Amino acid sequence: MKGGLFRKKGIDSLIAATKGEKSLRRDLGSFDLTMLGIGAIIGTGIFVLTGTGALTAGPGLVLSFVIAAFACLFAALAYAEFASTVPVSGSVYTYTYATLGELMAFIIGWDLILEYSLAVSTVSAGWSGYFQSFLNGIGIQLPVELTAAPGAIKGTVTYFNLPAFLIVILITFLLYLGIRESKRVNNIMVVIKILVVFVFIAAAVMYVKPANWQPFMPFGFTGVFNAAALVFFAFIGFDAVASAAEETKNPSRNLPRGIVYSLLVCTVLYVVVSAIMTGVVPFMQFKGIDHPVSLVLQVTGQNWAAGIIDVGAILGMTTVMLVMLYGQTRVMFAMSRDGLVPRALSKVHPKHKTPYINTWFFGILSALMGGFVPLDELAKLVNIGTLSAFILISIAVIVMRKTQPDLPRAFRCPAVPLVPILAVLFCGFLILNLGGETIMRFLIWLVIGLAVYFLYSRKHSKLGQTENDS
């Protein structure tokens, strides 16, 4: 409908936009994309949430990871079809614009702010805790007032989380320099943290006591499902691979591989690590522990390995923040190029070929949130924003198959509409397990987004202006 809320961008016009002045450098292969996905996924989930999830599900946590992985896998196949067909920056926002229309595209772009920026801030707080533990180990103590956000530690006066702020600023500078420099750093850190996970597996597997797996589901399936909704956070990030479409050498081949490979590798690691953890240490001993993987090795008397795990956690969380912030800037880059957010956010640096204003804006914003805001309760908002994105991309695949059946597709999501419907059902089920308070906060965020769209975005939409001029 001309001038309507559901006007769509054509696939040809989306791809044409990548070849103009505001274009990005293509420098990523399938290995780089797989490493990008692993960099985003392996971090807080394996080093922190495994302990919290064990308290909710017991040894049944392995099932929780499998359930969350299935929700991601079904959505990943939908992502892979779109990413190979529409190799444009912006991920699910761009795909939704081409299938469900402008309003839905804006809403999903607005949702992704919850996933990416808030995830960066949340992970930066966890990174700060591990980093401070590392500093304490070598005899360096930061002023307590600069170790956490105000009110984050009960009974302790804190003003600002300085390490959390500084690490995000450092990552922002790296992204400002360019994707080539960022991928090199990411690839190195990903290799190191995978080796660290293998060190844990090798050091702890001989201490597993099968008796600790009994009862396997102490809180029944309710505990397993609730843990699945929680540990879903551990898988967030594979979709950021799709954000790199415009910087990929051969997107039709490499993007599907990067998305699916990274998800499969991380799922196997999560299941193995959680099984070993609950087999070595009775699950109730993880209560109040924010370094569960290190605890397992400390219990076995392998403090040397525990120190290695701490370093791996620091590197792991660093790559998560790197990829998440990267994904955020690329989504906003696409939205800005379409006129739905201010045009300055799509300005490309003449030398580094990066959206530099965009990068610094969201980098500083995420750094300040990590420094000043206790984000424990808001972490669930990250999950619900991501799950909503997965639902929309799955619906979009079905719509695209109906409306553009002859569109060339380098990769086709199998068993459509069954697989996308399963993605919707799995993701919807996990949303229900996040609780009513989280859903209400999410709805408030959506209302704010709708206000932004009707007051600004609809008037400045490039597609809308083109229709009015025609």
From TrEMBL:
Annotated protein name in UniProt: Amino acid permease
The topology of this chain with respect to the membrane is: Multi-pass membrane protein
Gene3D superfamilies the UniProt entry points to: Amino acid/polyamine transporter I
Q: Name one GO molecular function term.
A: amino acid transmembrane transporter activity
**Taxonomic source organism:** Bacillus glycinifermentans
InterPro entries per the UniProt record, alphabetical? AA/rel_permease1, AA_transporter
Q: Please state where this protein is localized.
A: Membrane
A GO CC annotation recorded here is: membrane
List UniProt keywords, sorted A-Z. Answer: Membrane, Transmembrane, Transmembrane helix, Transport
